[in-house]
Structures are given as C-alpha cells and as structure tokens.
UniProtKB/TrEMBL annotation:
<dbReference type="InterPro" id="IPR003439">
    <property type="entry name" value="ABC_transporter-like_ATP-bd"/>
</dbReference>
<dbReference type="InterPro" id="IPR003593">
    <property type="entry name" value="AAA+_ATPase"/>
</dbReference>
<dbReference type="InterPro" id="IPR027417">
    <property type="entry name" value="P-loop_NTPase"/>
</dbReference>
<dbReference type="InterPro" id="IPR015854">
    <property type="entry name" value="ABC_transpr_LolD-like"/>
</dbReference>
<dbReference type="InterPro" id="IPR017911">
    <property type="entry name" value="MacB-like_ATP-bd"/>
</dbReference>
<protein>
    <submittedName>
        <fullName>ABC transporter ATP-binding protein</fullName>
    </submittedName>
</protein>
<keyword id="KW-0067">ATP-binding</keyword>
<dbReference type="InterPro" id="IPR017871">
    <property type="entry name" value="ABC_transporter-like_CS"/>
</dbReference>
<dbReference type="GO" id="GO:0005524">
    <property type="term" value="F:ATP binding"/>
</dbReference>
<keyword id="KW-0547">Nucleotide-binding</keyword>
<keyword id="KW-0813">Transport</keyword>
<dbReference type="Pfam" id="PF00005">
    <property type="entry name" value="ABC_tran"/>
</dbReference>
<feature type="domain" description="ABC transporter">
    <location>
        <begin position="5"/>
        <end position="239"/>
    </location>
</feature>
Length: 262
C-alpha cells in the first residue's frame, strides 16, 4: 500500500526554495491501479520521486507497505527500493554500457538473486523486444528503451510499482500490451500500481485518476471514461493558460501546457 500524508516538496534554486508540492495526501491499496494526471510542470514526477523514496520531501511523509520512509536511513531506503519497488522513469534510466537483457537482469544482480534468464527473455518477448535483447540502449529508439525499462519491472514483479508516463514513447499497439501487463500486475497479482500519464485512454484503464494542478490534488475520478478524463484535463489546462495570461508570466509551477488531452 502507498500512503502519502500531506507531502510537501520544494526545490532549492540558488538561495531560494521553489515550492512544488503543497500537502498531497493519497492512498493506493494493493490490487489497485491509480493514474496521476495534470499539466506539465504540475509536480507529477516530483510526487512519484517523493513516494518512491528517491527524493526526501521537505514536509509530510510517505509510507510504503507500512514503512514510513522518513524514518529510514539512506541504506534502509535503498534496501526497501530494491526489494519492494519498481520504478519506470520518464527518462528510462538504463545503464548505457549494458545490453537490453543485462539492464533487465541488473536489479536481480544488485539484489544478489539468481537471474531468471528464461523469464527475462519471455518478458522481453512480451514487450516485443526479443530480437533487441543484446543491443545497447544507445542503439535503441526511445520506445525500445522505454520497453526495456518496463521489462525490468515486469520481470521483477515488485509489490509496488511506480511508472512515469510508461507508454509515452510507445506506438498504440505496444502501449496496449504494456498497459495490459501493468493492469494485470494490479488486478491479477494484487500489486499496487501508481502511474503518471498524459493519455486519457491509459487513465481510463485505471481504477481511479488523481488530477494534480499546481502541486495540489485538484480532483479525483473513479472508473472514468477516456472522455471524462479528457474533459477534466481540458478544463485544468485552460486554467493554467488563464493564470499565465493574468500574471503575464510562466512561473515554475505553471510552465508549458503540453499536458492537455492528447
Ligand atoms: N531538480 C529540480 N530543481 C528545481 N526545480 C525542479 C527540479 N525538478 C523539477 N523542477 C520543477 O518542478 C516543477 C515540477 O516538475 P515535475 O517534473 O514534477 O513536473 P511534471 O508534472 O512531472 O511535468 P511533465 O508532465 O512535464 O513531466 C517544474 O516546474 C520543474 O521545472
Ligand atoms: Mg514528469
């Protein structure tokens, strides 16, 4: 289970603190797949980093499967992340010197667990990358790198999965395959999946959608349709644009607005 209790975060920019998250509370239970949506710059990735223990929030706390992250040392946090968490980064975070296969195998090696060669090949086949297993990330397209990052999580099947725009670089068909796998992880295996997406059709496959706006949770939809999701996103994006016009500036929390319904 993921529990966020009034999470706040501010980035340090020179000698100034730039507040990004303003007291986010949420809960994702086992067996649930939840989407986070919101305009670009609204703090979605930052929220995921705080919840996954990659960034220490400047206020509030995150609790994963009963362990309050603020009470863990860096070493304990790293251990928890290795054993219980999977993270698909927006920027994929692959090791450039390792092949696709070895990138998927890496968490097993780091955790000193046997590398399940057959399973890894199977997962790479599932995401359509069987033939690229030996290629280095530098020789892969963005979508192929993203699929390696997804295969890494799907091979481990950790109890808690965070995914930051996991289908952003995928074609429609591959996106559906990947999404099916993430939905299965939640609904069949009873794991906990929290995913950021800009795509209303991805959000519509989730049990709930949380909308982030200027670092605050603005709205929640349960079992939404893609049309409902697109409607809320259009309204939020219009609010961002109206705020930019009225202030005559693009402040950090209302940057560009490519988060509209695509
Ligand atoms: N390390 C950092 N230092 C300072 N500011 C940062 C840092 N990382 C992010 N920000 C700022 O925090 C805000 C939120 O960033 P974040 O990456 O969480 O947005 P997002 O909602 O994930 O956007 P997108 O949809 O474009 O991925 C942005 O204004 C960004 O410029
Ligand atoms: Mg982001």
């Amino acid at each position: 289970m993921i529990v966020a209790d009034r999470i706040e975060h501010a980035y340090q920019a020179g000698d100034q603190q730039v507040p990004i998250l303003h007291g986010i509370s949420l809960r994702v239970t086992q067996g649930e797949m939840v989407a986070v949506m919101g305009p670009s710059g609204s703090g979605k990735s930052t929220l995921l980093y705080c919840l996954a223990g990659l960034v220490r929030p400047t206020g509030g706390s995150a609790t994963l499967n009963g362990q309050n992250l603020s009470q863990l040392t860096d070493t304990q946090l790293a251990k928890l992340r290795r054993s219980e968490l999977g993270f698909v980064f927006q920027s994929y975070n692959l090791m450039p010197t390792l092949s696709g296969f070895e990138n998927v195998a890496l968490p097993f090696r780091l955790g000193r667990r046997p590398v399940p060669t057959e399973k890894i090949r199977e997962v790479l086949d599932t995401v359509g990358l069987g033939h690229r297993a030996d290629a280095l990330p530098s020789a892969m397209s963005g979508g192929e790198q993203q699929r390696v990052a997804l295969a890494r999580v799907l091979a481990q099947r950790p109890p808690i999965v965070f995914a930051d725009e996991p289908t952003g670089a995928l074609d429609t068909r591959t996106g559906v395959i990947v999404l099916d796998e993430l939905v299965n992880l939640a609904h069949s295996d009873g794991h906990c999946v929290l995913t950021v997406t800009h795509d209303p059709s991805v959000a519509a496959r989730c049990d709930r959608v949380l909308f982030l706006f200027n670092g605050r949770l603005a709205q929640e939809l349960r079992t939404p349709t893609a049309e409902q999701v697109a409607g809320v996103m259009t309204a939020l994006t219009a609010e961002v644009e109206a705020a930019e016009v009225s202030t005559g500036s693009t402040d950090v929390s209302t940057g560009s607005t490519d988060g509209g319904a695509r």
